[in-house]
Amino acid sequence: MKYAIIGVEGPHDQAFTGKVLKLLGFKDFRDEWNKLDKLTRLDMSKELESKFDKFWHKFIPRYPKQGDLYKRLDMPSILFNDSISVAIFAGEGSSNLVTNLDDILFANYEYQTNLAAFGIVADCDKSTPDRIVEPYANKFRSYFPNFPDRSGVVNTNSPRTGAYVLPDNASPGVLDTLLCECGQIAYPAYMEKASSYLDEFSEKERKSLKWKNFDREKALVATVVSVLKPGKTNTTSIADNNWVSEQTQQQVPALANFLEFLSQLLELS
Asked: Among 62, 112, 134, 198, whose Cα sits 20 to 30 Å from the Cα of 181?
């Protein structure tokens, strides 16, 4: 079995990357666990760690985190196929992703020689794609000397490394920019109605709400999510609905490119 780590900025990106991996044939450890009935899960709860691949045991967070009873546990998503197991870590925002991943790699230094791949998924919301990649390359070359300094490029030395900057390694935007493209394919009627609703907000109202760049895309996705999954989060909708699907893969070039990036990073045939 081979192992890989992918760092992402937040839970939405974590759900998105996990859904893409499922499209590539991966299974989610959580899904396999949830297939068990509640009584079985209760009986087996003390054995949960034993169900993980042993490689990931040291990566399971301990509660309370740093003594803070209210701090969220940064449990990675674990997905796997017959040959490779992938952990997707959410970094609590772009500002914390480098620091959090550095802490994880430093604390588990002896495991790095067993990694087949290490990748980053980030947003192009504040600069150009290559400048977004730069701090990741500078930091993680101390662990992986061949980490590329260009977005969308996979270095094929062992371990394979690379960073993908959403939405497409070229255009400014965030995950929601790509999801809007997917939504136009998967949910065109809902996207149109949601867009019409948001258009009713004047520029003055948007300023009073302190909307920033790409907030309209975020609001558009959230509005459609509230129809698809009333009361649920974007994370749940990304995981459960058809934002990422064979249909959107075929008709949204940026999504197809991201699948190709992950296929190269993880050396999938």
From this structure: 134
